[in-house]
Write a structure and sequence with these properties.
Low-confidence stretches: 1-16
Structural class: alpha+beta
Shape: globular
Number of strands: 25
Helix content: 25-40%
Distance between the termini: 65 Å
CATH topology of one domain: Glycosyltransferase
Mean pLDDT: 93
Number of helices: 17
Largest sheet: 7 strands, mixed
């Protein structure tokens, strides 16, 4: 019998490895939710760097299969459908077919098999929690970006352990003003995240990262665990909030006693970060940095209040209001850091940018405080723009204005918001998002062969983040209940952008770094970052260097505007001229938009940062979008009291004004039950004596407005939170 089993294993292994993985067959390498739409994309390149790598898939009846990894058996058989009647897709340069296996709903590990060519796809999973690990690693990327602390092997992994950075002479604990380095200007500006591939810390650039992460928590609080293996794990607070707090604490240090906020801390470059000994300097307070923090602190106060961290929420509220007051009387204080030699990228904002940040801040502050000052400002300015037009006046929504679109939608949550203003914002958002050819109609009309459409011009610096914001436009339609009849379509459309990031794109890369151990067989091997630098024996390319880059980072993505440094048009000097050879940078040079990507991290003059540099804002937009598809994590700490799955049950949800909370503890106990609105105001409270077994509590919310609420059950120091929706 043992000999038979061994022989069977050998034959099975031979059968698997006899089937070559062919990346012309694109799948989400992490997987698909059980009831989700599931469509693999098969390509035959016609133009671009891989045009010689042609592929003729089996297009006959039932030539494509879904097979189980465990025993190689076919569990689903189907036929390919040609995209656009066999036309070449301009954005990719590929002819494309779709293989729809949505009806397969059995959990397990699978691959797609082409029976004609005896080739297969990368492996993928089907299940309710297929994105849990990649979501965790994407959040953990911020831990590697932390400035000023040691990364211990127990949390960072042996390969990425490092001592504390930027704690040396005239560094972040003794940071000096860029224009006056006398000790009298010294400030402790330690902490926070490195912004991107460099070690600078820009206040204005924290906006996209923190706004998306804070809304990710609010929109799906139940998906965030306390087990992400960061220093704060196990403290009873979702690790997402712990990680955000690390950045917020730095921003609080950047705020001055008069409410203004310093603009930047910059300088240095070395690998690893702890090796950087360059002096660090800070820039002065500016209007834009101060407005940025007014908005961030206000939105953060809402989230930390809702999570029960009310003391910290109060600190953030005070900081937000002080920042607003200063910026309101100092309306045009600027600092252009590049002429000053501080920072690798210009972070100053023009009048349009400052207007946008102020309007967003007023929205968050009003939802937080209910103060009429913020309401009056918002409602008096939301239809105007110093540049003469933007998404509201154009009646055209698009992902490059996601920040102000999101803030306006957020304002509609305020219980005291003017009904006409709310109606205006919702209609101006919903109509173009649903009906414009560049938005949801791109999904309806199958405009993109790779099922994640946006215009050619959008494939620019940071396109992966823009892709995610396009997907978030459709989750917004669901979140704000703007067109409930189409929610399934919006969910499917949004998922297309996740699948694109996870490998359903012309390159077949899962656009996340070093994820081979976490479910993606063809993830990013290298990206531009000072730590994981080109030529590093330890942290350069995965498979070539000892460790490769840390996992979980999102690179910028395809950039059709990529170009070599200008010196390549004359002379860069010495051996650098050879690096200008176009064969070394094709791709991303001269490619269809979706193929304008290369998996490399070479510095000047190839300037790979235009394509592959990471950014804290790139990960945030991805995390927020992915969280809408993530499964619920076990309630923080309450498994000690409610050990059975589904021991806490809330129904119906959504509800019409009342719901039942069912609790099933394994012993007698006392609990507190609270319901909070979206700004952290408690609208219901009770204390209950529970007995072992099923206990039911009916909660009446008929006298409060419709919207999103949070039910919190507290047992001792343990807290369980779940979002509910009152629809009328």
């Amino acid at each position: 019998m043992k000999k038979f089993c061994a022989l069977s294993l050998v034959l099975y292994s031979f059968s698997i490895f006899a089937q070559t993985i062919d990346n012309h067959i694109k799948v989400d390498q992490f997987g698909y939710l059980i009831t989700a739409q599931k469509i693999a994309v098969i390509s035959n390149p016609q133009t671009g760097y891989n045009s010689a790598s042609t592929f003729s898939p089996g297009t006959g009846a039932n030539q494509y299969q879904v097979r189980k990894i465990s025993d190689n058996s076919a569990v689903f058989t189907g036929t390919l459908t040609a995209w656009n009647s066999g036309a070449t897709h301009g954005q990719s340069g590929d002819k494309v077919w779709w293989f729809d296996f949505s009806s397969l709903t059995t959990t397990g590990s699978y691959y797609i098999y082409d029976a004609t060519n005896n080739v297969r796809s990368y492996q993928f999973e089907i299940g309710d929690c297929v994105y849990s690990e990649v979501l965790k690693q994407a959040v953990r990327s911020y831990y590697y970006q932390r400035c000023g602390i040691s990364k211990l092997a127990a949390q960072a992994g042996t390969g990425w352990a490092d001592g504390s950075c930027h704690k040396g002479i005239q560094q972040d604990n003794d940071c000096r003003l860029y224009s006056n380095t006398n000790i009298s200007t010294s400030k402790n500006l330690s902490g926070g995240w490195h912004d991107a591939g460099d070690y600078n810390k820009y206040v204005n650039f924290t906006w996209g990262a923190l706004i998306d992460l804070l809304q990710a928590y609010e929109e799906d609080p139940q998906v965030w665990g306390d087990n992400y293996n960061i220093p704060e794990s196990g403290n009873g607070i979702p690790d997402l909030l712990d990680e955000i707090k690390y950045e917020l604490d730095w921003l609080l240090k950047m705020q001055q006693s008069n409410g203004s906020v310093l603009s930047i801390v910059g300088g240095g470059s070395a690998s690893p970060p702890s090796a950087d000994s360059d002096y660090r300097r800070y820039g002065p307070a500016t209007t834009s940095a101060t407005l940025t923090c007014a908005g961030i602190f206000a939105l953060a106060a809402i989230q930390y209040n809702a999570a029960g961290m009310t003391a910290y929420g109060a600190t953030l509220q005070t900081a937000a209001e002080n920042a607003w007051t200063w910026a309101n009387t100092n309306t045009n204080v600027t600092f252009y850091n590049q002429p000053a030699g501080l920072g690798a990228g210009e972070q100053e904002m023009d009048a349009n940018g400052r207007w946008s940040r102020k309007l967003c801040a007023s929205a968050f502050l009003y939802v937080l405080t209910g103060n009429a000052t913020y309401k009056t400002y918002f409602e008096g300015n939301y239809q105007t723009h110093p540049g003469g037009g933007y998404w509201y006046t154009w009646q055209y929504t698009y992902p490059f204005e996601s920040d102000i679109q999101d803030a306006m939608l957020y304002y509609t949550k305020a219980s005291g918001a003017d009904a006409t203003v709310v109606s205006n914002i919702k209609s101006r958002y919903a109509n173009p998002t649903k009906n414009n050819a560049d938005n949801y109609q791109g999904y309806v009309n199958s405009t993109d062969a790779y099922r994640a459409y946006f215009q050619d011009n959008n494939y620019t610096w940071g396109s992966n983040s823009v892709k995610c914001h396009q997907g978030l436009m459709y989750t917004n339609m669901i979140e704000y209940n703007l067109d409930a009849a189409t929610n399934t379509g919006y969910k499917n459309a949004a998922a297309g952008y996740i699948h694109y990031i996870h490998g359903v794109n012309p390159t077949a890369f899962a656009y996340i770094s070093n994820m081979g151990s976490y479910g993606a067989e063809n993830s990013i091997n290298e990206f531009y970052n000072s730590w994981f630098a080109d030529g590093s024996a330890l942290w350069d390319r995965k498979g070539t260097s000892t460790y490769g880059p840390a996992p979980g980072f999102i690179p910028g993505g395809p950039n059709k505007n990529y170009s070599r440094d200008n010196c390549c048009n004359s002379s860069c000097g010495g051996s650098f001229d050879a690096m200008c050879n176009t064969s070394l940078i094709t791709p991303p040079l001269n490619q269809p938009p979706q193929k304008s990507y290369r998996d490399w991290n070479t510095n000047w003059p190839q300037n790979s940062w235009e394509v592959t540099e990471n950014g804290i804002y790139y990960n945030a937009s991805y995390i927020r979008l992915l969280s809408h598809f993530a499964c619920n994590v076990p309630p923080l700490g309450l498994n000690n009291y409610f050990p059975e799955e589904h021991a806490i049950h809330i129904f119906p949800n959504p509800n019409n004004g009342s719901f039942t909370l069912e609790l099933n503890p394994d012993k007698d106990m006392k609990v507190e039950i609270s319901v909070f609105n979206s700004v952290g105001i408690e609208v219901f409270y009770s204390q209950e004596e529970l007995h072992e077994g099923i206990n039911s509590k009916k909660i009446d919310l008929e006298n409060i407005v419709t919207g999103i609420y949070y039910v919190r059950v507290t047992a001792g120091e343990s807290i369980y939170t779940e979002k509910i929706i009152k629809i009328r």
